[in-house]
Every structure is written in C-alpha cells, then in structure tokens.
Amino acid sequence: MVRLMLMIAGVLGLSLLGWAVDNVPPTSTATVAPAPNANGWNNTGVTVTITASDNPGGSGVQKIYYKLEPDGGVVEVNGTLAQVQINQEGIYTLEFWAEDNNGNVETPHNSVEIKIDLTPPVVFVESPEEGAEYHLRQPVEAQWFAFDTVSGVDATEASTLSGEKILTEEPGFHVFVVRARDKAGNETVVEVNYQVVYKIIPAGAQGTFVDNPLPPEARTPKGKLPLLARYIQGQLIEIAFVLKDYFDEIYPDGVPTLTVTEVKFEGGRERHVIWSWLTIPYDPDEGVYRIYYPTAERKPGIYDLWLGFGDGTHVRIRVEVVPRAED
Fold first, then answer.
1. In terms of residue numbers, what domain contains 314?
2. More confidently predicted of 72 and 112
3. pTM of the entire structure?
4. How far, in Å, CA of 42 to CA of 118, rounded?
C-alpha cells in the first residue's frame, strides 16, 4: 500500500510524509522578437527569449540550455529565462531545453528557425545609361537585372521591363527607375537619368542659326563669347532651324523659345538685361522653326540670343547691333 501511494505521489509530483517527489521535467518555450515577416525572414537582428516553468509542486527550474546552429556550443543559463541575441545575417536553428532542481531534463526542442537578411538586393541597369542622350523616338531597349544572395528577390518594379523599349517619345529629361525587394523586406531603388533630344539642324546662312553671320575669321571674342553676327539697328534678325527625330522625320510639335538679353560689361564682368522671351513658331510650308526678331527698339550694343529647344538643350548666340549710317 505504501509503495502504491509513493508511485502515485511521484506521478503527480506530490510530497508525501515530508518527502519531495519530482520526476516530471520542466517545459520551455521560445519567442522571437521582432517576429519574422510572411516569408519567414527578418531584416534586423532578433532576440529569442526562452522561458521555462516546472510542474505545479515540482522542484523548480534550475537551468535552461540552448544551442544555436550552425557551429554553436551548448550554453547553460541559470533560472527560468534566457535570451539569445542574433545580429548576423544567416539561417539559424535554435535548440533549447530546461532542467529542474531534481535533475529532470526536458526533451530538447529543435523547431525554432531564425532567418536574417541584412543586405538589400543588387540592381544593375545597363540601359539606359546614366546621363545618356537619346534622340527623339530612338528605339532603346531597357537592360537591367536584380539579384539577392541571401533571402532571394521577392519582387521587382521598373519604368520598363528589361527587353522592352524605354520612353523616348517625349523630349526632355527622364528618370528610369528600378525597385527591387528581397524576401526579408530589404529594398533597393536605382534611378538613372537620361535625356531625349532632337536632331537640331541650323537653317541659317553658313550652317548657323542666323541669317547674317560674320565670316569665320571675323568671329572674334566679345567678352565670354565670340561675336557670331552683326546687324544694323532696325534690321530683323532671322533665326531658323529644323527639329528632327531619330528617323530624320521633321518634328512639328516642339515648343522652342528665344530669350534676348542685352550684355553689359562692368568691371570685367558681364551683366544681362532681359528684353524679350518669345516662342519660336513652326513654318509648315518649309518645315522649319523661324522667328524674325526686330532690332529697331534696341539700342546699339551686344546682345545674346538664347535658344531653348524644349528638350533641355540650349544654344547661346552673341550678336552686335550697330548704329544706322545716318546716326
């Protein structure tokens, strides 16, 4: 009868006649903070907290043991709580168990996997090239790829898929964007700046933009720029050019502009006074952009003609207005 009572007390972890009977091992659990994402990855270091408890009326938890693989040895921690800091990227398996004061040892757990990726994906953009100029409507294929050696690439987004044509239908400055995210949530964004320009063909005399250029040998420096042309006060300055696309088709829908500034020389420096800002119209009969700028109200002096073509390209021409003979 006494033996039967002792056996029952041992199973239930009871004390009988002042004897402490405990042959039930403690239990332990582990939590990971921060918790992994939906893909099972973390992109920061983590803390694994192991807690252990003994059965009611048991001898109490003495130690927690854990082993972090790969290449980890067994670590002993006294008490009911142990924390494991993991700050290096990689894939780890944490094995842990507890022991009570009566020497009962829990069967090791081997179910906690920690996956850490601290490195964003790598993105290479081969085309378009940074700072490149492409002609309007030029066929240019996007060439880019992304990879991640730890958790792997989860998603990519781009202005254009690799192998498809980039935007060259609109003149001006453009930004090509590739965004890649790995399975841990690390993200890389690459931006490539490029410019879409016209083929700009001067339609003035001697291959210039104006109708009355000086001979090449007479284009001497006047301040910071050479003097390209000379006009008598009252003359019209004719400015003409053609805009074409990559296929040498005339482009009639541009919005080029002319800005006229008077150049004043003060103590070796140049100061500009803006006189005019005009849109240069398109002449459909001749397929050219042409404007006639009057000089009748301009006093003699040096003037700069600033041509803006609407694609980010600019040309600056320096001319001189001289007095009429009767003056």
1. 200-322
2. 112
3. 0.80
4. 8
